Task: inverse folding
C-alpha cells in the first residue's frame, strides 16, 4: 500500500538515506528499526512530506506522493506523529482531538465550516471515538498539557487517529514509556491494525517491535540491511552485526 | 488545572456577545449625558474598538501584524477618493468598498508577508505598513500627499455634524463586525485558524493548510480595519497619512497585550483601560506613551494573559470560595 | 569618485545602526526594539560630554571620552534590560519585541523631558575636509568610516578568534548543543545584549556630529537597521555588511538621481521582495 523505491536524501555531503526500498502491506504493522543515526528519522520525514527526496519515489496506493506537502498527504490519509510528542497543550483533550477530526475533514471550505458551534456533529463524534479507542475517556476534559508524558503520547496518536488516516506513521511511539505504558500503547496499536489501519512505525525498542510488528525492515547507514518477519530478522546475522557491532555479534554467537 | 471556559462553547460566545452589548450600552449612556467633547472621544473610541477586534482576529493565527493601521489607511483613502468627484459614490457605499479595498491589499500582501514567521512576520508587516504609508505620501496625484484629502462627508443618512447619529452608526458597525468575528471564531474554520496559531507543524501534519488559513484570518481582520478607516475619515472629514501613524499601531498592540487576546472582550477591555489612562493624562499628553509603555511592559512581565487572565483568575477563585462555603 | 566616497560614507552610517542589532539578533534571536533608543542615548551622551567637558579639555578629547561614557550608560541599560526583561521572556521572542517596543517609547518620553523635544546639534570636533582627486569628504565622515570599520573588524576578530567569541557562536548556532558543551547560555546572552547595546551607544556617539540629535532619531535609525539585517539575513554579520553596502549604494544613486523622496518606499519594497523569495534573507541561516 505504501511503497518507497530507491529513496535517497543527502544533506550536502552527508548521505542520510541511500537507495532505500520499503514496502508496507495494507492493514499490517510494519516496523522500521535501526541503530542511532541509521536514517530512520530522515526516512520518516521523507515519507511524510516534511523533506523532499534527493532521488527515488514514494507511492501511496500506487499514486506517487513524493514532493507533496505534509497537509496534502494528511488529507490523502497519511498521517504522522512526532518523535518529540506534539499535542495542543493549551486545549482540553477533547478539543485537541477534535481538531484532528476537523483537520481530517476532506471537504473543501464548505458552508458548514463557517457556522458556529460545531460541538455536536460528525467531528465531535469522531473525536470521541478516537478518545475511547485510545483509552482517554477518563481525562476528556483535562488540559492536554497537564497529562503525564505517556498519556500525552497516547493523545498525540488519538489526535492523528481522529483525522481518519488510512496509514499512520508513528515516530518512536514507545520511547520513554514505562513497561506498563508500552504494553498499553502496543495493544492499542494492534487494535488499530485490526480495524484496517496500516501502520508504519519507527522504533528503537527491539523487543516491543518484534512482538508488535507483522513485518520489519532494518536500516543502517541509510541502506536497507534486512526485510522480513520478526522471526527472520531475529536470526539475521547482518542485523545482529548492525546493532551490536562485530565484537558483539561474535560474543552473542559464541 | 481545568480550563475555566472552553474556547468555543456557546457559553463563551454568549459572554463575549454580552460584553459587546455592554460596551455599546455603556458608550451610548455616556454619550447621551456627556459633553460634546466626550461624544467625540466616544466616536474615536468606538472606531478604535472596531480596529482592535479586527486585529485580534489576525492574532488568533499566531501573528502580530504591524501593518494593521496602514491597511486601515487603505480603507480611509478609498472612502476619500471614491466619495468625491469624479466617482461620487455615496459615502455609505464607500465604507463597504473601503473594507473590500483593504481586504484586497491585504490579500496581495499576504504573499510576501505570510511566508514569514514570528519575528520575521512582524518585521515584514512593519515594512509593509511603512511601504503603504509611503504610498499614501508619495502618490500625490491620488492621495494629496502629506496634506491629504479634505471635505469628506458624512454618509447621507446621518445629518452632517450630528455626532450622536454618527456614533450610533459606528456602534452599529461595531456590533455587526463583533458578531461576525465572534461567530467566525467559534466556527470550524475559526478553530482551525487557532490551531495553526497554537502549533503550526502539528496542524499541518493533521491535514490543515496553514498558509490558506493564516491568509484568511489576515484578510478578514484587514477588512475590519478598512471599514474602521473609512469611518474615521468620514468623521474627521479629512484624510492624511499622519492619521495612520505607528503610535496608533502601538496603541492597538498595547490594547491587545494589556487586555489579552484569547477572547473577544480582552482587547476591548485593554482599549478601555488605555483610553481612560489617555484621558486622565489629557493635561500632559507627553507622558501618555510613558504610561502606556509602562503598562505594556508590566503586562508582558507579570500578567502574560492580560486582563482576561486576571478576570479568569478572579472567577476561578470565586468558584473555589463558593465550593468551600 | 565622489559617488564612491558617498557610498562608503553612507554604508558606514548604516553599519553603525545595524551592527549591534545584527549581533543581538543573530546570537539570541531577540529583537531589541529599544536598540534605536540606546543609539539615541549614545548621541546625547556625546552631546553632554562635549558641552560639559569640551570647554575644559577641547572638543576632540571630550568627543573621544564620550564613547566611553556612551558605552557605560548603554552597557548598564543593557544589563538591566537583560536581567529584568529578556531573561524572563527568553522563550517568547514576540513578547520581548513588544516589551522592548514599550521600553523605547518610555525612553523617548524620558529624554524629551530631560532635553526637550527640539533637536540639538553638535558641531564636528574634527573639522575640515579631505580632498581625493576632485571629490571631497569631510574629516568627520572619514572618522566615522574608520571608526565603524574598526569596530566591525574588531568584533569579527572577537567572534572568530577568541574563546569568548567561540562560545557566542556556539550559542548562536545551537543553544541546546552549547549548553551540553558547558557554555552558560545566560551569561553569553547577557554579554551579547550588553555588547550590542554598547555598540549602539558608541555608534550613536560617533554619529552625533553628523545630522541632528533628537529624541526620535532612534526610531529612524532602527527602521533602517531592521531593513538591513532582514535583507542581510539572520545570524550573519557579513550579511549585514553586504546589505548595508547594498542600500548605501542604492540610496546614494537614488539621491543623486533626484529620487530621494522615494527612498523609504523603495527600501521597504526591496525588503518585501527579498522576503518573498528568500524568507531568511540573503545570507541568512534557514530556521
Result:
Amino acid at each position: 500500500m505504501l511503497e518507497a523505491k530507491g529513496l535517497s536524501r543527502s544533506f550536502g555531503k552527508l548521505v542520510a538515506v541511500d537507495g532505500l526500498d520499503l514496502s508496507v502491506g495494507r492493514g499490517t504493522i510494519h516496523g522500521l528499526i535501526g541503530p542511532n543515526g541509521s536514517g530512520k528519522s530522515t526516512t520518516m520525514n521523507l515519507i511524510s512530506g516534511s523533506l523532499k527526496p534527493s532521488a527515488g519515489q514514494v507511492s501511496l496506493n500506487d499514486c506517487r506522493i513524493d514532493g507533496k506537502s505534509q497537509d496534502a498527504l494528511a488529507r490523502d490519509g497519511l498521517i504522522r506523529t512526532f518523535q518529540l510528542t506534539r499535542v495542543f497543550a493549551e486545549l482540553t483533550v477533547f478539543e485537541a482531538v477534535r481538531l484532528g477530526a476537523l483537520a481530517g475533514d476532506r471537504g473543501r471550505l464548505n458552508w458548514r465550516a463557517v457556522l458556529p458551534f460545531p460541538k455536536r456533529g460528525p467531528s465531535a463524534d469522531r473525536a470521541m471515538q478516537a478518545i475511547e479507542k485510545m483509552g482517554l475517556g477518563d481525562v476528556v476534559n483535562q488540559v492536554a498539557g497537564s497529562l503525564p508524558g505517556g498519556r500525552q503520547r497516547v493523545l498525540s496518536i488519538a489526535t492523528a487517529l481522529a483525522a481518519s488516516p488510512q496509514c499512520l506513521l508513528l515516530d518512536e511511539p514507545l520511547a520513554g514509556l514505562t513497561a506498563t505504558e508500552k504494553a498499553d500503547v502496543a495493544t492499542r496499536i494492534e487494535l488499530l491494525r485490526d480495524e484496517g489501519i496500516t501502520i508504519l512505525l519507527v522504533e528503537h525498542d527491539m523487543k516491543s517491535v518484534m512482538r508488535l510488528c507483522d513485518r520489519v525492515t532494518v536500516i543502517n547507514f541509510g541502506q536497507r540491511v534486512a526485510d522480513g518477519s520478526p522471526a527472520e530478522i531475529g536470526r539475521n546475522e547482518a542485523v545482529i552485526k548492525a546493532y551490536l557491532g562485530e565484537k558483539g555479534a561474535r560474543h552473542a554467537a559464541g | 488545572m481545568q480550563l475555566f471556559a472552553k474556547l468555543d462553547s456557546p457559553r463563551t460566545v454568549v459572554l463575549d456577545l454580552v460584553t459587546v452589548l455592554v460596551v455599546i450600552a455603556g458608550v451610548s449612556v455616556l454619550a447621551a449625558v456627556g459633553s460634546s467633547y466626550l461624544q467625540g472621544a466616544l466616536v474615536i473610541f468606538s472606531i478604535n474598538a472596531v480596529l482592535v477586534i479586527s486585529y485580534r482576529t489576525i492574532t488568533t493565527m499566531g501573528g502580530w501584524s504591524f501593518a494593521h493601521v496602514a491597511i486601515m489607511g487603505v480603507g480611509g483613502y478609498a472612502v476619500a477618493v471614491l466619495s468625491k468627484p469624479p466617482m461620487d459614490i455615496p459615502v455609505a457605499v464607500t465604507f463597504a468598498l473601503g473594507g473590500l479595498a483593504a481586504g484586497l491589499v491585504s490579500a496581495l500582501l499576504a504573499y510576501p508577508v505570510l511566508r514569514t514567521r514570528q519575528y520575521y512576520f512582524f518585521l515584514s508587516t512593519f515594512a509593509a505598513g511603512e511601504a503603504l504609508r509611503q504610498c499614501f505620501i508619495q502618490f500625490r496625484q491620488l492621495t494629496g500627499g502629506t496634506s491629504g484629502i479634505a471635505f469628506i462627508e458624512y454618509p447621507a443618512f446621518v445629518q452632517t455634524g450630528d455626532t450622536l447619529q454618527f456614533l450610533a452608526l459606528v456602534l452599529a458597525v461595531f456590533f455587526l463586525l463583533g458578531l461576525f468575528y465572534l461567530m467566525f471564531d467559534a466556527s470550524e474554520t475559526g478553530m482551525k485558524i487557532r490551531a495553526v496559531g497554537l502549533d503550526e507543524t502539528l496542524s499541518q501534519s493533521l491535514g490543515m493548510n496553514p498558509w490558506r488559513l493564516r491568509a484568511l484570518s489576515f484578510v478578514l481582520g484587514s477588512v475590519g480595519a478598512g471599514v474602521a478607516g473609512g469611518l474615521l475619515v468620514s468623521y474627521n472629514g479629512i484624510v492624511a497619512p499622519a492619521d495612520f501613524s505607528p503610535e496608533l499601531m502601538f496603541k492597538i498592540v498595547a490594547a491587545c497585550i494589556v487586555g489579552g487576546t484569547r477572547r473577544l472582550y480582552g482587547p476591548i477591555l485593554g482599549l478601555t483601560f488605555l483610553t481612560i489612562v489617555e484621558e486622565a493624562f489629557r493635561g500632559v499628553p507627553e507622558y501618555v506613551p510613558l504610561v502606556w509603555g509602562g503598562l505594556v511592559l508590566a503586562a508582558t512581565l507579570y500578567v502574560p494573559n492580560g486582563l482576561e487572565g486576571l478576570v479568569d483568575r478572579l472567577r476561578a477563585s470565586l468558584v473555589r470560595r463558593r465550593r468551600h462555603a | 569618485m565622489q559617488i564612491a566616497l558617498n557610498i562608503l560614507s553612507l554604508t558606514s552610517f548604516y553599519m553603525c545602526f545595524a551592527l549591534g542589532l545584527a549581533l543581538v539578533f543573530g546570537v539570541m534571536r531577540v529583537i531589541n526594539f529599544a536598540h534605536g533608543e540606546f543609539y539615541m542615548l549614545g548621541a546625547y551622551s556625546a552631546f553632554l560630554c562635549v558641552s560639559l567637558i569640551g570647554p575644559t579639555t577641547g572638543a576632540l578629547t571630550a568627543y573621544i571620552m564620550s564613547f566611553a561614557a556612551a558605552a557605560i550608560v548603554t552597557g548598564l541599560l543593557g544589563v538591566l534590560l537583560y536581567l529584568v526583561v529578556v531573561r524572563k521572556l527568553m522563550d517568547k521572542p514576540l513578547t520581548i519585541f513588544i516589551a522592548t517596543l514599550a521600553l523605547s517609547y518610555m525612553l523617548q518620553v524620558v529624554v524629551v523631558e530631560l532635553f526637550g523635544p527640539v533637536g540639538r546639534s553638535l558641531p564636528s570636533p574634527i573639522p575640515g575636509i579631505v580632498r581625493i582627486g576632485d571629490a571631497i569628504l569631510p574629516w568627520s565622515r572619514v572618522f566615522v568610516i574608520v571608526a565603524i570599520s574598526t569596530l566591525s573588524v574588531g568584533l569579527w576578530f572577537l567572534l572568530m578568534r577568541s574563546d569568548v567569541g567561540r562560545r557566542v557562536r556556539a550559542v548562536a548556532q545551537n543553544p541546546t548543543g552549547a549548553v551540553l558543551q558547558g557554555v552558560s547560555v545566560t551569561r553569553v546572552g547577557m554579554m551579547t545584549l550588553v555588547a550590542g547595546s554598547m555598540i549602539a551607544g558608541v555608534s550613536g556617539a560617533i554619529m552625533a556630529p553628523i545630522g541632528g540629535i533628537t529624541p526620535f532619531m532612534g526610531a529612524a535609525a532602527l527602521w533602517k537597521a531592521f531593513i538591513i539585517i532582514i535583507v542581510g539575513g539572520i545570524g550573519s554579520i557579513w550579511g549585514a555588511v553586504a546589505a548595508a553596502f547594498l542600500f548605501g549604494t542604492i540610496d546614494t544613486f537614488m539621491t543623486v538621481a533626484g529620487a530621494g523622496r522615494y527612498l523609504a518606499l523603495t527600501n521597504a519594497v526591496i525588503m518585501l521582495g527579498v522576503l518573498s523569495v528568500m524568507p531568511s534573507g540573503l545570507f541568512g541561516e534557514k530556521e
Remarks:
- Residues 126 and 140 of chain C are 5 Å apart (CA to CA).
- Chain C has one domain: 2-214.
- Residues 59-86 of chain C form the longest helix (28 residues).
